[in-house]
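Example 3.2
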Amino acid sequence: MSLLVVGLSHRSAPVSVLERAALSADAQIKLLQDTVAAEPATEAAVLATCNRIELYADVDKFHAGVAELSTLLAQHSGVGLEELTPYLYVHYEDRAVHHLFSVACGLDSMVVGEGQILGQIKDSLAQAQELHTAGRLLNDLFQQALRVGKRAHSETGIDSAGQSLVTFGLEQLAAGCAVEAWAAGKKALVIGAGSMSSLAAATLARAGVAEVVVANRTVERAERLAEILTEADDNAVAARAVRMDAVSDELTRADVVVSCTGATGLVLTAEAVAEAVGGRTGQPVVADPAVTAVKATQAVQLPPTSVGTDENCPLDLAAVQPGFSLMGEAAVAGMDAATLEQHAAWAAGTAVDRRERRTPEADAELITALAATAATVGRIPERRKPEPPAERPAPFFFLLDLAMPRDIDAAVHRLAGVRLVDIESLAEASADAPMAADVDQVRRIVSDEVAAFGAAQRAAHITPTVVALRTMAADVVASEIARLDGRLPDLDERQRGEIRQAVHRVVDKLLHAPTVRVKQLAAEPGGAGYADALRTLFDLDPETVAAVSRAVDSTDKKDRPA
């Protein structure tokens, strides 16, 4: 069996594809179950974070494994295989080990050196163990990856090369100011109570915000996080929990909003943010013409009878969810230019014809607005840089979206007085981040650990054969001693013991050098064939070797922490 990983990340795919391919918790479980049920794979684990989706498996055939894992990823992510394939990467055997160890050390993270990935790898392993999809190989691999990551952080200064995604995001919101100075006295709203949201809340507390409000669908989790923040020995902060239906009210009070939920749709629309800012200032929110046009079209409600029946709309209206804007960013995500123009024409007709004031200017304005909205998913270059200060006031409302798929409508960044940082803008900013000198040292650690892991796995591969050989030798000794007992019945017990020990010593000395040497040879690259040679030379029963392997695996699983 061999290790194979198939996946996509912020390095191989645009954010729009990662967003659409994001796996829910249920989808991850089903993916694991279907992978081990597939013919090429016997073990499986999924590493799914905000900027990567990777499927690890122990397979018996490389090409069949790649085809099966790619197909399963496409099926469970909801992105077609033909569309997904150009963004997938494949690593096999030592390259797969090297990849995971690099990921564990933060070398492959959007923010180099961030340590949060270790917790995500630990969760991935725990999930596979709970579902019984992780066997000996993946247990060894992921546990060693955790040790390698911890070693990199303890022996090098890789932490100085990067930070958590939360800290990096807050630095981008602060735009050159010290985060502590920027955050001092601000009121923060954190939407979600998972690991990333909890880290965000704790980071904001350390930065010196005056209050943290936690909103979550399960209010008990929000209350628990608020309690932890309030009772912290250091950097305690005033904190309280609210239900999700109170978010709109809390938006008018907050200065900073961090959102990271598992929702599959938008949690905060551009309209909700605009209303909150308007309620905060008492003045209408100013946006550029593109947002104004989009908002104008979004204000129009389709008659109930038209849903699912409008022939000119390129969208599948029958699949539209409640609260889904047919004119918004989610609607046009991923459209090509021709489909975008068709949608713009349909939207213009829907929005304007029924009011009997359609004009060519309205069509052009709407097409421009939709193009600008679609740009956030990467099909059309987006002018994401802020307008000159003379045209755009300094921001006073800050939003950090760490979810994948996104929680906050990307059109928010066009609202005057609002600054939005999301995964897409973080990816752009991290591309220019400086690399620390310690990165080279971490790379050397990874290379050394990959070699050691490979040697250990190859040595472990021959162990059942060596055990089977020694078992066969012990059986031969026992048989000969029994034959001797029958032929020399007059020997006393002391004499029998001396003979027994002498025979055992002879066999042990004869086997010692070959078995030690074969283990050393098997640990070297290309040493897998030594186990086959040993079985052939000593005519070992393959079933005996397999039985030893099963016994070893059973012992490992029993001793393995849950």
